[in-house]
Amino acid sequence: MDKSLFQGKAAQKSSVYAGLQALVADEFENSRVSIRQMLQGLGIQHVDQTSSGKGVVEACRSRRYDIVLCDFRLTGGKNGQQVLEELRELQLLKPTNIFIIVSAETGRDVVMGIMESQPDEYLSKPFTQAVLARRLERQFLQTKALSSMKTLLANQKYQELIPLCAQHIEQQGRYAAWCKRTLVDAYLSIGALQELERLCQVELEQRDVDWALLGLARKYLEEDDLANAVSILQKVIQLFPQTISAYDLLASAYEKTGRLEDAQAVLDDAIKISPRIHKRQKHMASVSLANGDPQSALKASQQTVRLGINSIHENPDDYIQLVDIVAESASQVESSIERKRLLAEASQALTVVSKRFADDDSVKLRKTLAESRFHASQGQMREAQQSLKAAKQLASDLEGGLPQDLVVEYGKTLYNAGEHEQAETILASLVNDQSTSDALKQQAADFLDEPVSLGAKAQAKALNKEGLSYYSQKDYLKAIHEFKTALEVSPRHPGLNLNLVQTCLKLMEEKGNEPHMVAECVQAIQRLKHVSPSHKQYKRLSALKEYLTKHYKVMF
């Protein structure tokens, strides 16, 4: 752009920008000064500066800026992406605020992480005053046109927001695309699923659009129509492989349908594209754990902790989960040096919990329980009992007693420390308590089913898969061998035990009554005394018991 022409345009805009207040954050003083001069050249006279992420947060507490230009690299540990996430969480940004992340980073992981945090603009260094002017003008025009709608959106006044968005779309306004995307969220928030479907279908009649497909998928997820949700999300990923939110939604859908291996594979794909998202790594850790994959769980848990440091996302759950995963996976590490490093990492995580969350009594209890489980995993039973004793004292000192959401952790710790009977009693009471949430019931039931290490779970899972394969081929003897081998490492698992019973019964249908086979069935069912009427395998268990009683005169 011709310099004189640019200066003329800048002068025209100076009166528009004159009353605005801006904040510039950059670790280097010369960069801060340079950007400040650019802004002042555009007519923005009030420009504050800071070098740290903490400085940005504190500045935004004391003043509501119109424009924030924040570099990704800042002093003090907190980066620009973490600053934006924290400001939003603390509601320190005005709905009409223009937040621009500036960065010289070229790594795909950093760029994708920044884009997922959805700043209003992303500026790559170095940039000129003319580039900054164009970006600010674009954002200023959008903010001016959408000011009332953005304010309603921030205040969650969806009933008032929807007609304004619809009107802008009908008038073919410049920001119709923004309004359509916003309507998807608004309709979902108020449960207007038919309106949401109409909006998306109208768009999809013209062409495939990522937001419309995602909108439909989210609608199906809301209705628990997982098959249609999965189908659409698979299509989104095929057509728009950079639409990263589709991967997260698909993983959640797979998880709900019990397809945990598929969920882990999708999350792995997402992490390859954009690894610097705390929630995604945390999800990966939990799914990997459920799959009995301690190494993947460990890697994701380590990343979760690292991404939480200096961010609004940091919480004791991540550190405690890391301790538990290290306890599970350390024994499978061949290198003694690496094992020692891992154990030191777990000890450090416990220390961090003690220091950073020292004022929370429930966190103190959780940390002490995790400490007991950690010692037990290393065969240090005396130390495990000492920590458990301390945890029991902390639990008794808590006002109102042990919170229900900590009962599962407490039960696991008791079991790992050798107090099996008490652990089973506590967890069974949780499962049978009508006031217990479904999630907690499932956690307790899962542990009662399989109170073994991740390595044992993985081994049992693989053997069960082999057994099912032989069963489908009607090779019942080999299937029985695989199921019995699996039960040696995971003896309480309902699915395994019932698979063994069912296979024995199939074999006896062919060969007739064989007492040792009947005995196998009785022993398998006796191992399932912990299965309550609310358990997902209870109906199958009851049916097989009735069959044995009717055809083989077995009494239970």
Automatic annotation (TrEMBL):
SUPFAM superfamilies documented for this protein: CheY-like (SSF52172), TPR-like (SSF48452)
InterPro entries: CheY-like_superfamily, Sig_transdc_resp-reg_receiver, ST_Response_Regulator, TPR-like_helical_dom_sf, TPR_2, TPR_rpt
Keyword Lyase part of the UniProt annotation: no
Name by which UniProt lists this protein: Tetratricopeptide repeat protein
TPR-type repeats, residues: 210-243, 244-277, 460-493
PANTHER family recorded: TWO-COMPONENT RESPONSE REGULATOR (PTHR43228), TWO-COMPONENT RESPONSE REGULATOR ARR22 (PTHR43228:SF1)
Superkingdom of origin: Bacteria
Keyword list, A-Z: Phosphoprotein, Repeat, TPR repeat
